[in-house]
Amino acid sequence: MHELRDHPVFSCSEHTVCDTTVVEVRGALDILTIPSLNALVDRLTAATDRPDLVLDLRAVSFIDCSGLGALCRARTRVNSRQGRLLLVSADAWFLRILRCTGLARSFDVHAGPPYLQDDACPAHSYHFAAL
Where would I find the STAS domain in this sequence (predicted)? Predict the structure, then answer.
């Protein structure tokens, strides 16, 4: 098992395209880091009536049950505000965890980030690359 010092430092960076916020998450999603992610999701979903949020998890090195709980919490917050939550990950272990826990159908998961049209910014202008 890895010691805590071997895990990449947790961080989130965000940027907005049209009305969609993309959050790039790095490091471990565990009981130590979830409060930071929850606070960020709370702030982002409180800022608009219909929050569209993309959580890019490609740089996540580890996820435990509290990390899965945080993703479910984010989904609930976004859905309660009539927004959309998309997850980006092609990690076989993460996808397996979603299947084994029965959460695979609860999330819209894509292998790569969406291409967001920044021209006229029509509502829900997501276009994903072919897998």
Answer: 19-103
**Residue of higher predicted confidence among 124 and 8:** 8
Q: How far is CA 37 from CA 34, 66, 105, 124, in A?
A: 5, 11, 22, 24
pTM for the predicted model, two decimal places: 0.83
What is the tally of structural domains in the chain? Answer: 1
The CATH number of residue 33's host domain is: 3.30.750.24
Tokens representing 54? Answer: 């993309």
Q: Give the CB-side neighbour count of residue 64, counting CA atoms within 13 A.
A: 7
Backbone angles phi, psi at 55, to 5 degrees: -105, 110
